[in-house]
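Dear colleagues,

As part of the handover before I leave the project, I'm documenting each prediction I ran so the next person doesn't have to rerun anything. This entry is a single chain, and its sequence is reproduced below.
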Amino acid sequence: MRASLLAGAAMLLVTSTPAWSADAVATLPVAPFNWSGAYLGVIGSYNWGHTDWEFINPGGTNADHRADGGGIGATFGYNWQFPNNVVLGIEGDLSWLDAKGDTICPNPAYECHSKAAWLGTVRPRLGYAIDRFMPYVTGGAAFGRVKLWSPGGALPAISESHTAFGWAAGAGVEYAFTDHLTAKLEYLHVDLGKDTYFGGTIDESHGQWRDDSVRIGLNYKF
């Protein structure tokens, strides 16, 4: 009888130990994700652009037109997450673009073309961490290569490219799938300011390139 009781107690102890261990592990707290650190990534975008092309001579005539297209590039940055879950970061990116368009010039015998060949930005980001999910706003400096040209015809062709500088602003959301891999969806507006093209000629113009883009990014956090 005594042997039977001892055997039953031993069996109960053996079978209950794993369940107790599993319960203990399940109650251990899981540390929230921390966004602090450096990261590198890739970005893809589609840009809905617009070129403001105003001829100085004769004054007031213009050849404004859309200049749309896609882009692909690289991004890098660093985040600091504070105890109140506010995330402050700095991000830079550089993208190759194929955003272009054309319209009839003020002289209808010719076409006016424009293209943005590449675009870069350097922007602070301000976000709020909800564990692995972070909405944010961003804004800063932008720069890119803009080309205006006309293929010509009876008159010689004209073409000029500038590295233009301006500003960018937008907002986005980012999610961390793992401790190292994050993905983001971002809207960005860019205005590269107004430059003078073909200065000192009859075709002297003011040109300004702007765009709105939706960007998708994949980052590796170190």
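Residues 16-22 have pLDDT under 50 and may be disordered. The helical segments are 2-26.

All the best with the project,
I.
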